[in-house]
Amino acid sequence: MNTLSIYLLESTICLGVFYFFYLAVLHDQPAYQYNRFYLLITSCLSFIFPLLNVPLDILGLGNTQGITASYNGYLLLDAVEAGQAGQKIPFWQNGLALAGMIYGMGLCLTAFFFFKQLYRLYRIIQNGKTESTGQQNYRLIYTHGQLPASSFLQYLFWDNTHPLDFLEQQQILTHEETHIQQKHSYDILYLSLLKIIFWFQPLVYLYEKSILETHEFAADAAVLKRSHPKEYIRLLTKRLFDGMDMSLINHFYKSKTLKRIKMMEAINKKTPWYKFVLIVPVMLSVFFTFSCQPEAEEMSQEVIAETYEEVQAQLQQVGEKLQTITQKYYPKSNEFTNAANKSGNEIAALKAAGANSEDLKKYEDLLAQKDQLHERLMHLPDPDGVYMVVENQPAPQGGYEAFFQHVAKNLRYPAQARRMGIEGKVFIQFTVNEYGELTDIKALKGIGAGCDEEAMRVLESAPEWQPGTTEGKPVKVKMVLPITFKLDHADASKNQSLNSDTEHPELSDGKTLSEMVVVAYVN
After folding, report:
1. I want to staple 14 with a disulfide (CB 3.0 to 4.6 A). Which of 46, 91, 213, 488 is the partner?
2. Whole-number Å distance between alpha carbons of 322 and 172
3. 489-493 long-range CB contacts below 8 Å, 24 or more apart?
4. H-type helices in 225-307, by residue range?
5. Is 414 in contact with 449 (CB distance < 8 Å)?
6. pLDDT value at position 258?
7. C-alpha 397: how far from its chain's center?
8. Which residues on neighbouring strands pair with residue 152, listed in sequence order?
């Protein structure tokens, strides 16, 4: 499961837990402002908590080093890097790309309807007759039947086509003025933004429904402070079927009438104090579950490196982490290198610079992981399908002794190197392909004066090998042969000779052949 899927799952669980608490404990309580802010805050925190990554050590809740140590045997790669390291997948076969396209279409569609409603309101405001309301902090706009009695931001829309008596007008005005005074429109704009971004999340729409209900309950409560409940209920039932489908505005007939009447009966009830306090353990539980993670759990969100590219990407990550630690104590890289050479190893150099125990432990773990990754890399094929180490290594036909005899018979110490007194070791790299042919022959490190070319020439003429195999299949394997060219002044009458430094030539470290020495006797 990728990181995005985990985030969406965790945010959904957070929304579900908070919304269930609201339904079970708060929704029938007359604490309208508390309920309003509870819904607003928890809807926001539900999308923030899964993004946080607070180590438990910072909170003093225990040492996770023992847990982390159990992951040392794994080769881990960040999920983002793993996706980048894989092969390119055609667009229509890429599920993530298809999901992204569907998400983008949904986002554009919901954004279109949102801005369409905004534009409609703008046109009504521009074309409607606007009146100042004196000391009231809003503008009154007559809609002539285009909108019911409603409010948005600092505008109060009044349908002057409905016949209402003075008391009814005052009740509706008080209701809508409460929406404006308590800035309910900002809640609606916030919810509209959530719906645009998370249009696929059904809990967002349930949150919207509940917040709009608390708006109406709060506005009804303000009206009941000035009016008799029976008169106000009669007004609600009289206009039960009025209204329009405009989700950005708070209008008088929008919420369910029966539910509003039921809440009026509980307006004088007191909410038990413990219902306010219960939110604290709920919120802390969600926070610790989705925002606080031990280091081991943080690592488990990574994926095991399986391909050559993934291991290389992980090696780069490990190298960056090692460099981050060393730069704390040695700002210049050459200073650390010199200190490590002087002290004998990197850990000793860090200790000498006063590194704390936490950094030393982390550095040791990273070095161990680096070694594991290098070992893993040798057993994986590179992008060209070439291995460094396989189950059955390649071998010359007739054995290594016959191979060295071929080299001894055909290789000559270059005359230019003899005249110039050039000595040294040449490292020749070559690949034994799946057919046993020696290909891609080149000098990794040479000494010049014709020695490099002579070593490559002899290998190009060498007989075919038995190819290396892994899982029973022949594969390409990369090999390295070191050849030392040495001048001997002991006896100039003797010819040059070639020998191996071991009695039984074989692979010395899995991929490097035993060293061969070319000796030339000169005057």
Report:
1. 46
2. 68
3. 489/521, 489/522, 489/523, 490/521, 491/521, 492/521, 492/522, 492/523, 493/521
4. 229-238, 257-265, 273-277, 279-290, 295-300
5. yes
6. 61
7. 51
8. 155
